[in-house]
Amino acid sequence: MVKASFTKKHVPPVAFSEHRRTAFERTVQLTQKALSQLQAQGKTVTLSAVSEATRAFDDKGKGLEPNTILRNPKAAALFRQQSPAYQQRQTKTRQAKRKRPTIDSKVRATYRGLRPTDLIAMIEDLKTQIVALKAQQQHLQVDRDEAHRLCAQALQQNTRQLAMLTQSTNDPGTVVREKP
Q1: Is-above-0.90 flag for pTM?
Q2: Element (H, E) at 48
């Protein structure tokens, strides 16, 4: 004989649904009142300030916890609209996300299959190459400075010789001797 099994779905009592709806509305109302009070007083709207301000309006004197405000979608939306601190943080977050460099999918695919040890070895090789390039750059800088010094010295010598030649053409009886 086969037993028929009937599973009864658990249906929450009507009173529980009513309690949840009441708590939801209470959270929204307390949040609205707290936000109005903070704005009227000219205080900064922060989550902790809203939480503290709700105690003054609560019949039970408990107020709302910050997480309660954030878990309630309407209360959270009210808070986010009124809070400059929250809006500033969101702006900074958006800007930080924009600053992230985008990596080309081809480049990403190139390195995706490598093991961490291979990646570390590549990084170490790149560090070595950077050090070598910096040393080469310093050597080239020294060579460039020396070339500029020699150029300036040659220019001065040519200027002196030109001045002496110019002077000797103006005075035909003068013998021109070059200084070493």
Answers
A1: no
A2: helix 47-57
